[in-house]
Structures are given as structure tokens and as C-alpha cells.
Amino acid sequence: MLQICRQVSSAASSALQGPQMSGFSTARLKMVDGQVRTNDVTDRRILDAMLTVPREAFVPASRQALAYLDLDLDVSEGGAKRFLIKPQLIGKLLQAAEIGEGDNVLVVGCATGYLAALTAKLARQVTATESDPALAAKAKDAFAAIGVSNVTCKAAACAEGDPAAAPYDVIILNGATEVTPDGLFGQLREGGRLVGVSAESRPSRAMIVTRTHGEFGHRPLFDAAAPVLPGLERAAAFVF
User: Fold this and answer.
1) SUPFAM superfamilies annotated for this entry (predicted)?
2) pLDDT per residue over 191-232, tens digit each?
3) In this predicted model, what pLDDT tens digit does every residue of 8-55 receive, in sequence order?
């Protein structure tokens, strides 16, 4: 009788969860086909990662219905606003980064960890930093829930990065910076690259910074906008 009850309970649970899970899978496919591919993201590994990693797992339950929309999604629950940046921008930044299977990667300002989880599908090891300890804890829980094991998540200021795990082959900003992040540049390996959105001037643009012979070369990629990461804001002008 106990076994029968368990079977009935399991069937009921599947019946309740099935339509929702199917809906998320359909939304994930539409996101990739309608937002990512159409923005010239052609790298098969990135497309496969975005089809596999459940974005809704990194979104508060009350906002999961918005998980696959073409927007910067607020995942904060009190305190400073924190976001998962738009899927199409994520795809284009990952493609520009040209992450190799053996790479050591730093994701800065990871929020609840979606970009870091995608990166983990492409790289050997990922370090993710988040300035809000509560969100860093949520990211760790999400990684464990979906079986991502090659990400180390730490609570740290965005501008600090994580020197302990440096040097990095790639650094990715999960947002924009209004200042030159010199502290992050110094954590790049020779030949390494940093990608993110630079809002130091207008219009803001996605940029790639490469380290060659100790020098840093900057190249604009495309116009882009994203929320500015905490600690990477422009200093407020003094007003009398």
C-alpha cells in the first residue's frame, strides 16, 4: 500500500510539474532561436549551453515567467538591484571571448549565476564573484541544483575580482562598467581577454581588452547597453 501511495504521489507530482517544465523548455528554444541566433551568435557550443542551462533556475520564483524575455532581468530580492543581462548580449559576449575547453575564467558580478553556469559548459574552471553575499549564496544553490561542479562562487567586490585564482584566460563582466577596471586587467594571463560593456562614454559599447606583452589593447565590438555593476560606477561629480 505504501508503495502504491508513493507511485500515485510521484505521478501527481509529474502531472503538476510537466506542463511548467515543458513551457520552460519551449521558451528556452524560442529564446535561442529568436534572440540569440538572430544576433549572429553561431558558436554551436554556446547555443547548446543556452539550450541546456535552465535560466529559470537562477530567477526568483515570483519572476520565473519572465526568465526568457529579451530584457535585463532583476533578480534582487531587497537591497541593491542586480540583474541577469539580456540573453542575446550574453551570447555575443561569450562568442567574442572565444573560451577554450581548458580555460580558466572569471565572471564578475555574477548575480545569481546564470552567466557563470553557461561559461562552465565552455571552460575548464570558472570563478564567479558577486558583491551581494545573499545572491552569491543563491548562485551556489543554483549550481548545486543543476549539477554544475566546475564553478567556485565567492562574495567579493566587482572591482576586486579574485586574485587568488588568477591569472585568467578570460574575464567576463555580467554588466557594464563606467570606469577602467585596472584591477581586473592585472588578473589577465598573457594573451588573455576581458569582455563586457563599457559605459565610460556614450554610446556604451561591448568591448574586448586583450593583454599582449604586458600591454592592454582595447577594441570596440558593437553598441550595447547593460546595467552598471556595483563598484564600477563613475564617481559622482561634485556639485555646489
Assistant:
1) S-adenosyl-L-methionine-dependent methyltransferases
2) 999 999 999 999 999 999 999 998 999 999 999 999 999 999
3) 333 333 333 444 556 899 999 999 999 999 999 999 999 999 999 999
Q: What is the 3-state secondary structure (H, E, C) of the chain?
A: CHHHHHHHHHHHHHHHHHHHHHHHHHHHHHHHHHHHHHHCCCCHHHHHHHHHCCHHHHCCHHHHHHCCCCCCEECCCCCCCCEECCHHHHHHHHHHHCCCCCCEEEEECCCCCHHHHHHHCCCCEEEEEECCHHHHHHHHHHHHHHCCCCEEEEECCHHHCCHHHCCEEEEEEEEEECCCCHHHHCCEEEEEEEEEEECCCCCCEEEEEEEECCEEEEEEEEECCCCECCCCCCCCCCCC
For residue 171, what are the CA distances in angstroms to 100, 191, 200? 13, 12, 18
**Domains of the chain, with CATH numbers?**
23-223 (3.40.50.150)
